[in-house]
Design brief:
Blueprint lengths: L19 E6 L23 E3 L7 H15 L8 H9 L3 E8 L5 H6 L8 E3 L1 E7 L5 E9 L13 H12 L4 E7 L4 H5 L5 E5 L10 E7 L2 H9 L4 H6 E8 L4 H12 L5 E3 L1 H6 L6 E6 L5
Parallel strand pairs: 1-2, 6-7
Antiparallel strand pairs: 1-3, 3-4, 3-5, 5-6, 7-9, 8-9, 8-11, 10-12, 11-12
Bound molecules: coenzyme A.
Length: 294
């Protein structure tokens, strides 16, 4: 079954065949009421595949998710321990991503994930969010996709980006916080879900001190720009550049911004277009709300 193709998503044609669909891996008690009603969007036309992570029958699916996770993150010493997936994702939160019809997937992927073709659907990506104590705010803490294990020409363009987009859309997320490492390709994705405020630029409490912590008001106008790479006029109108930069190779630049955040000199923001246009190790301009720039 083919879904009508939104011209914006032509680079992600795999979304429209019906052989790759979103999945929701959430225990029944945590199911979202009225999913996909907060953000008006026609991107996700197929009904998601529902699975209960606490159901023993779904263990093979979960094991393949672990394979994606461990193989994507292994080299960064950030791979998720089993207890964390159970205690901090399956129990309190919301796990989602895309899954492919196993019979239609390249053998290579099944081998990479050690997955048997007796199962109808094979996970291809993972996104985890958990609600915080603050109403409307969720924390995203895991995003990965099989793309990171495949050569460019075999990748499913936008798989990582759309996995997070689907999760935010489906769970009606209003405000999303998260953490990522300066210089990570993930910053190119995370900056596209709403204007990205840097609420922490240095985190020695974390496994990686060069971790940035962000927050955004989810805004689907920004999502389109991941594909169009157009200027975000609303961003340019609202925020102006400061003379502060983050140099992903300089811990000092992170500590300086962190001190300014702690001194309440912010709020500080990053430009998604600038991040998209720059190489991962290039310096990033820090922005502020214009009337605060004096
Ligand atoms: C980061 C990750 C989730 C991105 O997902 P993905 O499916 O590979 O990426 P998408 O297809 O959605 O998006 C492609 C865009 O992402 C960016 N991107 C992805 N990988 C990149 C890389 N290695 N270097 C630079 N940019 C990269 C580019 O902007 C690219 O678009 P372009 O080729 O048109 O410039 C995935 O690579 C991954 O699983 N990485 C390992 C785990 C990880 O670090 N997760 C993030 C933790 S916060």
């Amino acid at each position: 079954m083919l879904a009508s193709i939104n011209p914006l998503l032509l680079k992600s044609e795999w979304m429209h065949t019906g052989d790759i669909r979103p999945y929701v891996f959430v225990r029944p008690e945590n199911q979202i009421e009225q999913p996909g009603t907060r953000h008006k969007l026609d991107w996700f036309q197929f009904e998601p595949i529902y699975k209960n992570p606490l159901d023993l029958k779904e263990l093979p699916f979960a094991e393949a998710i672990y394979q994606i996770e461990w193989k994507s993150f292994g080299h960064q010493s950030l791979s998720i321990p089993r207890w964390t997936f159970y205690d901090c994702a399956a129990m309190p939160g919301f796990i989602a991503g895309f899954a492919g019809r196993t019979s239609k997937l390249p053998r290579k992927i099944l081998e990479l994930l050690n997955y048997s073709d007796e199962h109808e659907w094979c996970p291809l990506s993972l996104f985890i969010i958990i609600p915080t104590m603050r109403k409307g705010e969720w924390v995203a803490y895991d995003l990965c996709a099989v793309n990171s294990m495949l050569p460019k020409e075999e990748q499913y363009y936008g798989l990582g980006f759309l996995s997070k987009a689907f999760g935010l859309w489906y769970a009606n997320v209003e405000q999303c916080s998260g953490m990522t490492q300066w210089g990570s390709p993930a910053l190119k994705l995370h900056s596209h879900y709403g204007h990205m405020e840097v609420i922490g630029s240095y985190a020695p409490l974390h496994t990686h001190a060069k971790t940035m912590t962000y927050r955004c008001e989810v805004n689907t106008d920004c999502w389109e720009k991941f594909y169009t790479r157009e200027n975000d006029l609303a961003f340019l109108e609202k925020y102006g550049p400061t003379n502060l930069v983050i140099d992903p190779t300089s811990e000092e630049s992170m500590i300086e911004l962190q001190n300014r955040i702690q001194n309440k000199e912010g709020p500080f923001y990053l430009s998604a277009l600038e991040i998209a246009q720059k190489n991962l190790k290039e310096k990033l301009t820090i922005y502020k709300i214009k009337q605060d720039n004096s």
